[in-house]
Specification:
Layout: H1 2-24, H2 58-94, H3 96-111, H4 114-125, H5 129-155, H6 159-166, H7 171-183, H8 187-207, H9 219-225, H10 236-265
Helix pairs in contact: 1-2, 1-10, 2-3, 2-5, 2-7, 2-8, 2-10, 3-5, 4-5, 5-7, 5-8, 6-7, 8-9, 8-10, 9-10
């Protein structure tokens, strides 16, 4: 699973890096305007994946959507890790009113369905790459918080932690030196699985018209535009963005499952 996940994710990264270069060299349409291209043209040598209702090249938009999806998902899960992990360590180590307050906030967020919460946040913030990343970030912070807090509560009772505190080590030093490295082991697994889920949530936001601006190619918004075309036989407008989304989710899921097996065996 790790091998397939790494190779497939590597292919997506390669596409995301090469697509802007191909556009700058004029070897690939920018996917923004159809210009003289016909609407709903079927796949051909000129347009490998056909065109959409605005005459835009589906292949170009699908390839560009790869970089957009990776950018938003990477930013979202990175922010979630940098916020959720330290807050989880603080809550598990401090206890008392701090722990109860943080648990109440995080559990409240956790009980709200992922897509619903992201829709509300995206609606409030508006469209944009950073706003979409924030909407996804808030959704996943409670997951890192819960995992890290529970592990911190177990590790802080270990003898070496008690010994460090008895020798005068400060709370900040104990959390950074002894707790962080012991609770961080499960984060990579959660990160990859959350990234896979974030791809679907981002697609859902785009499908509902709450993700990115229309000028930015994005798989969810392309699927929304294809909603009326597929029933009348114009299948290519939805097939290729759907395959691209499925492949990225599959690669991240395979990588996450493989990491979980490796960590459990070690």
């Amino acid at each position: 699973m790790a091998t397939w996940g790494i190779w497939l994710l590597g292919a997506y990264l390669m596409v995301a890096l090469l697509t802007p270069l191909l556009i700058s060299l004029g070897l690939l349409d920018d996917g923004q305007l159809g210009l003289d291209s016909p609407m709903y043209a079927p796949p051909s040598l000129e347009h490998w994946c056909g065109t959409d209702r605005l005459g835009r090249d589906v292949c170009a938009r699908t390839l560009q959507g790869t970089g957009v999806a990776l950018q938003v998902v990477f930013l979202a899960v990175t922010l979630a890790v940098f916020i959720g992990v330290p807050v989880g360590i603080l809550s598990g180590y401090a206890g008392g009113i701090i722990d109860r307050t943080l648990v109440l906030i995080m559990e409240t967020l956790y009980t709200v369905p992922v897509l619903l919460l992201s829709v509300v946040i995206a609606f409030v913030l508006g469209r944009g790459i950073f706003n979409a990343a924030i909407a996804l970030c808030v959704v996943y912070i409670p997951q890192y918080f819960r995992v890290v807090r529970n592990q911190t509560g177990q590790v802080k009772t270990e003898l070496y932690v008690e010994a460090a505190r008895a020798m005068g080590a400060g709370s900040l030093w104990v959390m950074r030196r002894y707790l962080f490295k012991n609770v961080i082991t499960s984060v990579p697994v959660l990160l990859t699985l959350n990234a896979a889920d974030a791809v679907l949530v981002l697609g859902g936001l785009g499908f509902l018209g709450l993700g990115l601006p229309e000028t930015i190619p994005e798989w969810g918004s392309d699927l929304n535009m294809a909603l009326d075309a597929v029933p009348v036989g114009i299948w290519w407008t939805a097939l290729y963005p759907g395959i691209a989304m499925f492949g990225l989710v599959l690669s991240l899921s395979l990588l996450g499952e493989a990491l979980e097996d490796i960590i459990c065996e070690s």
